[in-house]
Amino acid sequence: MSTVSSKVQKQQQQQQQQQSGEQDTSSSSQLPASASSSSSIADTSASSAATADQSNVSSSTMGATGTDADLDVITTVFQDQNHFNVKHPLWNTWTLWFDNPTAKAGPGGKGGKDAWGELQIKVVTIDSVEEFWGLYNNIIPPSELPPKANYYLFKDGIRPAWEDPANTNGGKWSIQLPRDKSKESINTLWLHTMLQAIGETLEASFPDNVPNQSSSIEDELVTGVIMSARPNFYRIAIWTRKADDDLDAHAASPKQEAAETKLAKRLLDIGRQFKVNVLGYKLDARAGAGSSGFATEVEFQSHRESEKKRGKKTTL
User: Fold this and answer.
1) Tens-place pLDDT, residues 260-302
2) Pairing between strand 171-178 and 299-302?
3) Which GO terms of type biological process are on file (predicted)?
């Protein structure tokens, strides 16, 4: 009796196992392809997704935390300084220029104003944060530039010359700093000037620091920034697309906000950002106080006025 019972139990167990196997097979055949496919199909899907993620990534999503699989494909400079494959794009594309004073004085070299433009060397064009730092970390700092050398960082397509249509009707904010007293600080000041330029914050509304969202490059006032090394001083300048020869009257008015035209306010805001957020002075402080005759205040002058012996200037 016990033998018969054990055989029955054994048969029942076999039947249950067989039914269970059939159910597994049936369930597997009804699953979507993504769940029942082989590992090679899964790998292909993951690769496609990774490619899509990589092509669609933007600066707004770079800081987001993704899955481990995403991080294996998308690598920012914050994750690997040498092998990143994602860049943080700049609002504008910028070009660094350099003029070589050695060429001016070299044998057979041309001299004078006519040859100046020919001596400007186009170094590199950048359009991302990573490219900017790669450039900055591999060029001579301003403190080591020879006298009469200049760096020009201008928006791509704009030549650093008055004759360029983008600069013809413009002007510049500038400051001169005594060379002997500024050698330790000039590198930082030039770096901050460039960062404000490529970050589009020089045109921010002062003191709110809200960037001006221009609809086109023609609406943007800043065209470029310049670092000039001279025997007795350094000069940092910010070039603008437009100028206002009555800017001094607007800046000196007791009812400043009421007196400023829209253009005057934008130009003055650039100067204020430069003085306070780049150079580190208080707005009402005198930048050249107690310095040698090579120092100046933060000044604005149109290119047209700068050609005159005593052209108009606006001082902040």
Assistant:
1) 688 999 999 999 999 999 999 999 888 876 556 678 899 999 9
2) antiparallel
3) regulation of translation
pLDDT for position 61: 40
pTM of the full predicted structure? 0.70
Q: Are strands 89-99 and 314-315 parallel, antiparallel or unpaired?
A: unpaired
Helix, strand, coil content of the chain in percent (nearest 5): 40, 20, 40
> Which residues in the chain come in under a pLDDT of 50?
1-8, 22-66, 106, 254
Q: Helices 129-136 and 186-198: crossing angle, nearest 10°? A: 160
Tokens of 82: 């040498």
Q: What domains are defined for the chain?
A: 89-315 (3.30.760.10)
Q: Which residues contact 57 (CB under 8 A, 6 or more apart)?
A: 74, 86
Residue 53 is predicted with a pLDDT of 38
